[in-house]
Amino acid sequence: MHVTVRLFAGLRERAGRATVELEGVEQAGDVWPALGLGEEPPGLLYAVNREYADRSRELRDGDEVALIPPVSGGAFRLSAEPLDLRAAVAEVESPEAGAVATFVGTVRRRSRGRAVLHLEYEAYEEMAEQMLHALAAGLKARHELSEIAIHHRVGRVEIGEPSVVIAVSAPHRAPALEACREAIDTLKETIPLWKKEVYEGGAEWIGRGS
User: Fold this and answer.
1) Domain boundary residue, one of 68, 103, 123
2) How many separate domains does the chain show?
3) Are the CB atoms for 171 and 146 separated by under 8 Å?
4) Is the domain of 110 the same as that of 200?
5) How do residues 81-124 score in pLDDT, each as one tens digit?
6) CB–CB of 197/119 below 8 Å?
């Protein structure tokens, strides 16, 4: 039984590499002990072939297993370039829309009492994009939206720069505002994208267990 393991954010740094080839693991939950990296971090999630899976998921030869640190943030379009709110708004324009709600998250200088130099974002891009397409489809159905756009940075983001931009259009303002709020809350809870806060003399991955 041969599987490929992908590691992200603090787990990648802990292992010193982004991918590991393992033999002889039978279930998803067998992967972490086989890596020999010490105690399993609290809140660790597993994904098999880009879908979240229970620890008891039986593995097959050739599977890809991703170890997902607790997540922080998310994206519909992942971009290493600066974000433009106008571009997101243009994507959701519709003759049926009577309202456009937007959200822009920016990098602040201080976090939890420390001075931040910059942020670094990392994503499991293939899985994040699939999940964000599903998120957008669900929001459109629940709130009867016209369109939705979500753009998120990856890589280094400087103080004051946007890290996430969301635009939602709908026939009426109430569902547009509610869907915008739900979009950012869901991104922070479920999408496999992580951020590192870099300080003078140190850095920390943000999110439970990271």
Assistant:
1) 68
2) 2
3) yes
4) yes
5) 899 998 899 889 989 999 999 999 999 999 888 999 999 999 98
6) yes
